[in-house]
Predict the 3D structure of the following.
Amino acid sequence: MLAAFLGALVGLILGLTGAGGSVIAVPLLIWGMGWTLPQAAPTALLAVSAAATLGTLSAWPQGIVRYRAALVMSGAGLLTAPLGLTAAHWLPLPILSSGFALVLLYVSVRMILRARTAPEESKIVRAGLKGEQENPSEPVCKMNPATGRLRWTRPCALAISSGGLTTGFLSGLLGVGGGFVIVPILRAVSDLSFHSAVATSLMAIALTSAGTVAISITKGQPLDLMIAAPFVGGALAGMLLGRLTASRLAGPKLQTGFACLMLMIAAGMFWQALA
């Protein structure tokens, strides 16, 4: 029951804010279940993968998921995920907790800044609503207007792969999905709209997270299905509930409030690491 409740909280946050799934899942499992970060990471990633898969399926009919970019990113991520898992095994827990707290700090500050500078983006939750494309100056990856697909060049492939390499390592090290890395990279190197970048990131997160869980299991990291199953089920239910109410609640104030909550969680993890 506790695992299902914690999962529902994660899913509700995903559905309402479109961010912070794994970065809130891991602390909830650490404090709620009494686990260490390496123990919590696979279960958190499994829930995030399931929720991201649901978001991908919702966005797919809108034609805004750039699946080739997602496949390239996830493929690159699975190359570095084992390195992250190995580092998580050898690093002391206080260092891992401090690293996770730094990720929380980065994500929360970025959410606050985006809520102020681009309030319209805070209404784009995990479904990835179709919208007008925004064209940054001279992106490395450009859309083909005739096909609606990215034009794949060597610089484009390298730029997108770099995001996957970073995401995979962070997934293995800290158990985070990496949307806070993928979306900014896609926006920086391509002329994808924010809607399309979010939708594409969901597919990459789903594949990378699921692959990282599979790799961690093969490396001997146990996955307690008695906890993981209700946690994942609760996350999916919470996400559906969040999306039903997101049209009325999502916005800059909600994003800022959630970011402040993450700042408090980051402070708690720093304190725990020091203690």
DSSP finds ten helices and two strands in the chain. The radius of gyration is 17 Å. Residues 2-274 form one domain.
